[in-house]
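Predicting holo structure, adenosine-5'-diphosphate bound.
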Amino acid sequence: MQIFETLKPEETLKLGRKLGEHVKAGTVISLTGDLGVGKTVFTQGFAQGLGITECVNSPTFTIVQVYDDGRLPFYHFDVYRIADAEELDEIGYAEYFYGEGVCVVEWANRISEIMPKDHMVVMIEKDLEKGFDYRKITISGGGSDEDFGD
Ligand code: ADP
Ligand code: MG
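Done. C-alpha coordinates:
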Protein backbone atom coordinates (compact mmCIF):
# COMPACT_ATOMS: atom_id res chain seq x y z
CA MET A 1 0.00 0.00 0.00
CA GLN A 2 1.22 3.46 -0.85
CA ILE A 3 -0.12 6.78 0.39
CA PHE A 4 0.33 10.02 -1.56
CA GLU A 5 -0.73 13.54 -0.62
CA THR A 6 -1.49 16.22 -3.18
CA LEU A 7 -2.10 19.91 -2.65
CA LYS A 8 -3.43 20.89 -6.07
CA PRO A 9 -5.10 19.28 -9.10
CA GLU A 10 -1.87 19.25 -11.13
CA GLU A 11 -0.25 16.96 -8.55
CA THR A 12 -3.15 14.51 -8.71
CA LEU A 13 -2.95 14.61 -12.51
CA LYS A 14 0.77 13.86 -12.33
CA LEU A 15 0.25 10.91 -9.99
CA GLY A 16 -2.38 9.47 -12.32
CA ARG A 17 0.02 9.98 -15.22
CA LYS A 18 2.78 8.11 -13.42
CA LEU A 19 0.50 5.13 -12.80
CA GLY A 20 -0.64 5.20 -16.43
CA GLU A 21 2.97 5.12 -17.62
CA HIS A 22 3.74 1.97 -15.63
CA VAL A 23 0.44 0.08 -15.48
CA LYS A 24 0.41 -3.44 -16.88
CA ALA A 25 -2.02 -4.98 -19.34
CA GLY A 26 -4.94 -6.67 -17.61
CA THR A 27 -5.01 -4.32 -14.61
CA VAL A 28 -8.45 -3.42 -13.27
CA ILE A 29 -8.57 -0.40 -10.98
CA SER A 30 -11.35 0.51 -8.58
CA LEU A 31 -11.35 4.30 -8.29
CA THR A 32 -13.26 5.51 -5.26
CA GLY A 33 -13.99 8.84 -3.60
CA ASP A 34 -16.83 11.31 -3.14
CA LEU A 35 -18.17 13.56 -5.86
CA GLY A 36 -15.72 16.34 -6.70
CA VAL A 37 -12.76 14.71 -4.98
CA GLY A 38 -10.67 14.38 -8.16
CA LYS A 39 -11.46 11.00 -9.74
CA THR A 40 -11.76 12.55 -13.19
CA VAL A 41 -8.57 14.58 -12.71
CA PHE A 42 -6.72 11.39 -11.72
CA THR A 43 -8.20 9.48 -14.69
CA GLN A 44 -7.18 12.23 -17.12
CA GLY A 45 -3.60 11.93 -15.90
CA PHE A 46 -3.80 8.15 -16.10
CA ALA A 47 -4.93 8.37 -19.73
CA GLN A 48 -2.09 10.79 -20.51
CA GLY A 49 0.34 8.31 -19.00
CA LEU A 50 -0.99 5.65 -21.38
CA GLY A 51 -0.31 8.04 -24.25
CA ILE A 52 -3.98 8.71 -24.95
CA THR A 53 -4.52 12.05 -26.63
CA GLU A 54 -8.33 11.99 -26.75
CA CYS A 55 -10.12 14.06 -24.15
CA VAL A 56 -11.21 11.95 -21.15
CA ASN A 57 -14.30 12.88 -19.19
CA SER A 58 -16.69 11.06 -16.91
CA PRO A 59 -18.61 8.50 -19.00
CA THR A 60 -21.91 9.96 -17.84
CA PHE A 61 -24.32 8.48 -20.38
CA THR A 62 -22.54 5.25 -21.14
CA ILE A 63 -21.32 2.63 -18.71
CA VAL A 64 -17.98 2.31 -20.46
CA GLN A 65 -15.91 4.60 -22.64
CA VAL A 66 -13.21 3.03 -24.82
CA TYR A 67 -9.92 4.76 -25.69
CA ASP A 68 -7.84 2.96 -28.27
CA ASP A 69 -5.03 5.34 -29.17
CA GLY A 70 -2.68 4.68 -26.25
CA ARG A 71 -0.01 2.15 -25.31
CA LEU A 72 -2.80 -0.18 -24.10
CA PRO A 73 -6.56 -0.09 -24.70
CA PHE A 74 -8.18 1.89 -21.88
CA TYR A 75 -11.71 1.16 -20.65
CA HIS A 76 -13.19 3.83 -18.41
CA PHE A 77 -16.26 2.60 -16.50
CA ASP A 78 -18.69 4.63 -14.45
CA VAL A 79 -21.19 2.28 -12.83
CA TYR A 80 -22.87 4.86 -10.62
CA ARG A 81 -26.18 4.63 -12.44
CA ILE A 82 -26.48 0.90 -12.92
CA ALA A 83 -29.10 -0.97 -10.91
CA ASP A 84 -27.15 -4.19 -10.52
CA ALA A 85 -24.24 -6.17 -11.90
CA GLU A 86 -26.53 -7.83 -14.48
CA GLU A 87 -26.44 -4.64 -16.53
CA LEU A 88 -22.72 -5.18 -16.87
CA ASP A 89 -23.31 -8.68 -18.20
CA GLU A 90 -25.35 -7.08 -20.96
CA ILE A 91 -22.42 -4.99 -22.14
CA GLY A 92 -20.03 -7.95 -21.91
CA TYR A 93 -17.86 -6.52 -19.14
CA ALA A 94 -15.71 -9.67 -18.88
CA GLU A 95 -14.15 -8.95 -22.28
CA TYR A 96 -12.86 -5.70 -20.79
CA PHE A 97 -11.95 -6.92 -17.29
CA TYR A 98 -10.10 -10.00 -18.45
CA GLY A 99 -8.69 -8.65 -21.71
CA GLU A 100 -5.38 -7.07 -22.67
CA GLY A 101 -6.31 -3.52 -21.82
CA VAL A 102 -6.60 -1.65 -18.52
CA CYS A 103 -9.84 -0.70 -16.77
CA VAL A 104 -10.66 2.12 -14.39
CA VAL A 105 -13.99 1.56 -12.65
CA GLU A 106 -15.59 4.50 -10.85
CA TRP A 107 -18.05 3.47 -8.12
CA ALA A 108 -16.75 -0.10 -8.25
CA ASN A 109 -18.21 -0.75 -4.80
CA ARG A 110 -21.58 -1.10 -6.55
CA ILE A 111 -20.34 -4.12 -8.46
CA SER A 112 -17.91 -5.55 -5.91
CA GLU A 113 -19.21 -9.07 -6.51
CA ILE A 114 -17.91 -9.09 -10.08
CA MET A 115 -14.67 -7.16 -9.58
CA PRO A 116 -11.62 -9.37 -10.31
CA LYS A 117 -10.21 -10.83 -7.12
CA ASP A 118 -6.86 -9.09 -7.40
CA HIS A 119 -7.87 -5.61 -8.52
CA MET A 120 -6.04 -2.42 -7.67
CA VAL A 121 -7.72 0.19 -5.46
CA VAL A 122 -7.16 3.93 -5.80
CA MET A 123 -8.96 5.81 -3.04
CA ILE A 124 -9.05 9.61 -3.01
CA GLU A 125 -10.09 11.45 0.14
CA LYS A 126 -10.32 15.04 1.29
CA ASP A 127 -9.28 16.30 4.72
CA LEU A 128 -10.64 19.80 5.14
CA GLU A 129 -8.46 20.39 8.18
CA LYS A 130 -5.48 20.18 5.83
CA GLY A 131 -6.93 22.64 3.32
CA PHE A 132 -9.56 22.76 0.61
CA ASP A 133 -7.28 21.39 -2.11
CA TYR A 134 -5.59 18.70 -0.02
CA ARG A 135 -6.15 15.11 -1.18
CA LYS A 136 -4.95 11.84 0.31
CA ILE A 137 -4.57 9.16 -2.35
CA THR A 138 -4.17 5.56 -1.19
CA ILE A 139 -3.15 2.98 -3.78
CA SER A 140 -3.15 -0.72 -2.93
CA GLY A 141 -3.42 -4.22 -4.36
CA GLY A 142 -3.43 -5.47 -7.93
CA GLY A 143 0.30 -5.12 -8.51
CA SER A 144 0.35 -1.43 -7.57
CA ASP A 145 3.76 -1.79 -5.92
CA GLU A 146 5.36 -2.90 -9.21
CA ASP A 147 3.30 -0.55 -11.34
CA PHE A 148 4.70 2.45 -9.53
CA GLY A 149 8.32 1.50 -10.09
CA ASP A 150 10.50 3.82 -12.15
P1 ADP B 1 -14.80 13.65 -9.41
O1 ADP B 1 -14.53 13.06 -10.76
O2 ADP B 1 -14.23 12.84 -8.28
O3 ADP B 1 -16.25 13.96 -9.18
P2 ADP B 1 -13.37 15.90 -10.51
O4 ADP B 1 -12.04 15.32 -10.85
O5 ADP B 1 -14.34 16.11 -11.62
O6 ADP B 1 -14.03 15.03 -9.32
O7 ADP B 1 -13.18 17.31 -9.79
C1 ADP B 1 -12.24 17.56 -8.79
C2 ADP B 1 -12.24 19.05 -8.49
O8 ADP B 1 -11.42 19.31 -7.35
C3 ADP B 1 -11.68 19.86 -9.64
O9 ADP B 1 -12.43 21.04 -9.76
C4 ADP B 1 -10.27 20.16 -9.19
O10 ADP B 1 -9.76 21.35 -9.73
C5 ADP B 1 -10.44 20.27 -7.68
N1 ADP B 1 -9.23 19.99 -6.90
C6 ADP B 1 -8.71 20.79 -5.95
N2 ADP B 1 -7.61 20.27 -5.38
C7 ADP B 1 -7.40 19.08 -5.99
C8 ADP B 1 -6.42 18.06 -5.84
N3 ADP B 1 -5.44 18.13 -4.92
N4 ADP B 1 -6.53 16.97 -6.64
C9 ADP B 1 -7.53 16.87 -7.53
N5 ADP B 1 -8.50 17.79 -7.73
C10 ADP B 1 -8.44 18.90 -6.97
MG1 MG C 1 -15.81 12.43 -12.32
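The chain has a mean pLDDT of 94.
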